[in-house]
Amino acid sequence: MRKTFVSFMFLLFSISSFAQRTSSMTHEGSSGDVFIGYSLLNGDTLSHGSGWEAALTGNLRDWFGLKADLGGNYKSTGGAEGREYNILFGPQVSHRVNKLNFFVHGLLGVAHFSADVGPSDTAAAWVLGGGVDYDLGSNFAFRPIQLDYHGAHIFSTTQKDARYSVGLVYRFK
Questions:
Q1: I need a surface site. Which of 6, 42, 91, 98 has the fewest CB within 10 A?
Q2: H/E stretch holding 97
Q3: Which among 114, 99, 46, 113 is positioned nearest to 77, based on CA atoms?
């Protein structure tokens, strides 16, 4: 677990070093952004598991960036609580139209599932999805929708989930 944490911190700081404007950024695109919001995970692992999502994206071009995505979802049933945490990394492609910024991403990483009773497991995870941000002016944007197909290989079984996220984005200029 310590090795995973150290690796995650190294990658997080590496991605944040890319969050600096480059000469190839020709218009109002940001050098990167931070997203914090609510997440709903629904499917095989947690049915209607509420939680949080945080992401850091460092843009290498106006349209291309590298993303680190962290999330935690929780569900209580019959007095027992289940938890799933995800650490995911990968590319993100975006396209800006006026105040809207559309994006798609493909992320790989790990998922950890545990419950108050029973075993826990850590395994490979992936996300394919996208969303849209609405510029609020200055450095802030609102993300009304991010939809992802979330998969993980937990307990030697492929889990298939849908993840919905909504929240605020802070853009580095």
A1: 98
A2: strand 80-97
A3: 46
Tens digit of each residue's pLDDT (9 = 90 or more) over 27-63: 456 789 999 999 999 987 667 889 999 999 999 998 9
The Cα 43–Cα 7 span in angstroms is: 29
Residue type, 102: F
Q: Write down the residue that tokens 């509420």 correspond to.
A: 50
Mark out the alpha helices in the chain (DSSP H runs): 2-17
* 8 Å CB contact between 108 and 128: no
User: What does the pLDDT look like over 64-93, one tens digit per residue?
Assistant: 999 999 999 998 888 889 899 999 999 999
CA atoms within 13 A on the CB side of 163: 32
Angstrom distance (rounded) from CA 169 to CA 92 = 15
**Sign of the dihedral defined by the CA atoms of residues 147, 153, 154, 157, in that order:** positive
Of 92, 39, 105, residue with least CA distance to 66: 92
Helical (H) or strand (E) element with 130: strand 121-137
C-alpha–C-alpha distance, residues 87 and 70, integer Å: 5
